[in-house]
Each structure stands twice: as C-alpha cells, then as structure tokens.
Amino acid sequence: MKKARLISLLLATLTAGNLMASCGNDGGKTTDSTDAQTGTESESVEESTCPSFPEIDMDGKEFTIFAEGWASFDPLSINDIMAEELTGDSLNDAIYNRNVKVEKQYNCKVSFLEVGDTIAAHNQLKQSVMAADQSYDIAIMRTYNYLSAITNGIIMDISDIPNTDYAQPWWDQNSLDSLSVGGKAYAICGDITMNDEKSIWCVFFNKKMIDDYNLDDPNQLVENGTWTYDKLFTMAETVSADLDGNDKRDEHDRYGIGYIGDSSTPICMSVGIKIAEKNNDDLPGFSFDKGENISRYLDIFTKLYNDDIAYDWHTRQGFTGETDIFTNSQALFCLGGVYYASLLRDMKDDFGIIPYPKYDETQTDYISSASSNFLSVCAVPVTNDDLENTGAFMEYYAYLGNTDIRPQFYDVLLQGKVARDDESVKMLDTLFDTVTYDLGGIFDFGRFGSEILDMCKKEDLNIASKIEKKRNAINKDIDKLIEAITETE
Questions:
Q1: Helix, strand, coil proportions of the chain in percent (round to 5)?
Q2: How many Å apart are CA 287 and CA 297, to the nearest integer?
Q3: CA distance to 138, 158, 311, per residue, from 117 (Å)
Q4: Which residues face 278 on adjacent strands?
Q5: What is the per-residue DSSP string for 221-249?
Q6: CA nearest 170: which of 2, 25, 53?
Q7: How crowded is residue 79: how many other Cβ atoms within 10 Å of its Cβ?
C-alpha cells in the first residue's frame, strides 16, 4: 500500500527531530519554505531529490476543497486541510505551511469547507452539481455516499485527469483499483488528507493485563503468524471475570473483548469474506456465501457472542462510552479503529496496536480493512471543467501531504500510550500494508452490509436465511450500478 512503506522512515525522521522538507519546481534550485515551528525561513531539500511538477501560473485561481464530515464526530473530522495561522503546534503549522507552499507554487488560493452532518453534506454537494455552480473543485467524500455519487452522476472518472500520477506513493493505487467499477475510477485515497488512515480497523490490547496474566505477547504472535481467532478467544476467556460477584455480566465486570456492531465488517474481511468481488470486467458480483465463508463466519461470531467474555458497547450502552470498558482496564482487547487512538490517551495502562487476527495459521497474510461507511475518499465533481489545473493542484497537494503532513500526523497519532517504538511502527506498517476494500460493503448492495452490522448488534447468527432473503435485492442493486456505469459510456 502506498503509505505504509514510508511510515518507518517518517517516524524515524521525527524521532531524530527532523522534518522532511517539500520542494517546488523551480528549475533545479533549492527553495525556501516557512519553518513549521518558528515561522522563519529555512532551506528545503535539493530539487534533484524531488519529483517534477508542471510549471503553471494559475492566475490567482481559488481551489475549494469540500469535505463531508461524519456526524460531526471530531475524531473522524477532516482536520488536516486548513489552519488559520502559525501557532507553534507542529501539525497545525505543517498544515498551514502546505497551503502557503502550494499557493506560492501555482499562484492560487486554497479554501476549505467541511459540513459535519454526512447526509446534509452530500445533499449540498449534489445540489451544487445539479445547479452547475462550480462551487467545489475537489470533494472529500465518505464511502457511505459513494454509490449515490456515482449513480446520480455527481463525480467524474478521475483516471484520466491531466497532471496526475496515481502510481506515486502519495496515492493509494490499491484504493483506486478497488473502488473502480467497469474500468472507471471515481475516487481514490491519498495524502490530500490523512483521514482515510483513521478509518482503518485494528485491535488494541492492554499491555499490563498481558503481563499480569502471563499471556503471550500479541506483537510476537503477529510476527510469528500465530495471531488467530482461536488465540484471541482463548486469551479473552483467561481474563474474563464477574468482578462484583452478582452473577450478572454488566459494565462492572472484566471482559476479554470489547467491540461494537461495526466490528463485524473487519472481522469478515480479516478472514477473506467480502460481500462482493469483481470479475475480469471489473464488475462486482455477490461473494459472501462463497467457499468456506459461511462456516468461518458462524465459527467466529458464535464465539464472539459469548457475553461472558465479550462486551458489545453499542448493544449494552447505546452510542456513548464506546471505549469505556477498555479505557477503564476492564477489557484485554478492544476491536476498534485507528481513530480510537485519540480517545485512549487518558488510559492509565499502556496499550498496543495489532491487526485483526487470521482465521487460522494456514491463512497466509493478515488482512486489514477500512470502514465501508466513513472512509474518506478524494473525488472530483463533474462540474469541474478546469482539469489541467485541478490535476496539477491535486498532485502537488498530495505530495506535500506525504512529505510535510504525514510525519506530524503520525507523531500526533502515536502520542500518549502508544509508544513510538519499533513494535508500534512495525504494527502500523502491517496494518497499512494489508488494507483491502470491500466494494459490496461500500455500496451496501441490498443493504446487506447494514444487515450484517445489525445482526452483530442483536447477536443473530441466522446468516444463511439472511442471505436468501436479501439475495434478490443485492443482485438488483448490482444491476442498477452496472446499468448506471454503462449509460455514462
């Protein structure tokens, strides 16, 4: 994956107290840039170490980046596009300086608008396109709205936008391939924003409890290829206890696993179960019930629904206190997402981060996944008719995101209890190197993905009957999508 290969290098750079400088295209000379810490001028790296960018004068053009928020939930907000001024905070100042650099490079202006309510934001984007008012040049969308954006003709095929090179490490080529339909690529993950990383699922573990119970080191299990679901449930059972002795499992007890209904998606993906997979023509087809998928699903979720060892926050507490059981050291493992890191900084015990397990040791690789709902992707509205400038802007902006924003983002991400050590960096490399996407979950064909999440909340194991009930609706939605793609050819 485009980003993971750079993480170790970037974090090592941070630890040494250095910040990779970006460079402009000024005929091979060094360029001046504003120091992110002091606001003073400092020399950047030699141009020979930087990729080439087109020399374009955009004559003061204003580029407006529109972003769809996620229910105004701050840990998932797009907060790395705009900074009003230099404050001395390293991430803030890197954000500010990126905009200064791109504005200087292309004689343009950067503006940004995020609408926190996801549905309202998408409707606003749709209305802008329908009105052809050209208000927005680039859209950072949530995959929750991806199907609607394609079928309603809101976003364009970005594969042929001039002045872009999606093979560069500041773009995720895997996301471009995974999100394409019928050979058309409507969105991509890239370093215009780091927000897509926050949506990647992972497992947190309590280091103190590992030591207290003399359990196997999860990091070593991952390294050895022996981090499996059997191991997860065995370790979970070891620590679980009725702490208050009332013969009732509630929020006052200790559990092996804390999770939410959304955990059903990364669990399925981690053992190779996808709702849809694409054929040789790049078209999706239902695949959830292929091969050993159903037996694996039933095996894992039957064990997960043991209320003596696992605690579902959403079912037992609603949508509040999503990480409380883990933060209070009442759970050994927390099945969550990278965005949880900011919610765990006040936790008393140290914790680590690892990928979701393999099904068993015969599975070759760990498989990480991104949220099918709130993953942020970059797209371009169909009303944008200045594609040469847009492509140049996107390429340079993403490049600066990779060199300037990414090191500071990871520094912030790893603050607190996730130590900046070799183990943490290695696990992040594993997470980001193995990310895959389920187009069936993202498009939520027949609302089957939503039904899987609801089944998890209800601890419902009737997956075979659910598939038969939803199969026609799933195939109908797939046909609608293919028809919509075909009509635009």
A1: 45, 15, 40
A2: 13
A3: 18, 26, 29
A4: 284
A5: HHHHT--BHHHHHHHHHHH-B-TT-SS--
A6: 2
A7: 18
- Taking the complete model, does pTM exceed 0.85, yes or no? yes
**Quick check: helix, strand or coil at residue 253?**
coil
- Whether residue 18 is predicted with pLDDT greater than 60 in this model: the reply is no
Residue 413 to residue 354: CA distance in whole angstroms: 15
Rg (CA), the chain: 23
DSSP character string of 281-339: TS-EEE-TTSTTHHHHHHHHHHHHT-TTTEEEHHHHHTTS-TTHHHHTT-EEEEEEEGG
Q: Where are the beta strands (DSSP E) in 25-178?
A: 32-34, 41-43, 61-68, 108-115, 138-142
Element (H, E) at 378: strand 376-379
Chain segment 172-198, per-residue pLDDT in tens: 999 999 999 999 999 999 999 999 999
Q: How high is the pLDDT of residue 345?
A: 80
Tell whether the torsion through CA atoms of 279, 277, 284 and 379 is positive or negative: negative
- Write the pLDDT tens digit of every residue in 437-489: 999 999 999 999 999 999 999 999 999 999 999 999 999 999 999 998 887 65
Angstrom distances, CA of residue 432 to CA of 194, 359, 363, 454, 484: 12, 19, 18, 27, 32
Which amino acid type is present at position 23? Answer: C
Q: How far apart are the first and last CA of the chain?
A: 30
Residue 379 in 3-state DSSP? strand
- Residue 322, both tokens: 């999503």
Beta bridge partners of 24: none
- The answer for residues whose C-beta is within 8 angstroms of residue 116's C-beta and 6 or more apart is 69, 70, 71, 72, 77
Closest C-alpha among 371, 378, 337 to residue 444? 371
Q: Is the distance from CB of 157 to CB of 186 less than 8 angstroms?
A: yes
Residues with Cβ within 8 Å of residue 429, at least 6 apart in sequence: 4, 5, 7, 8
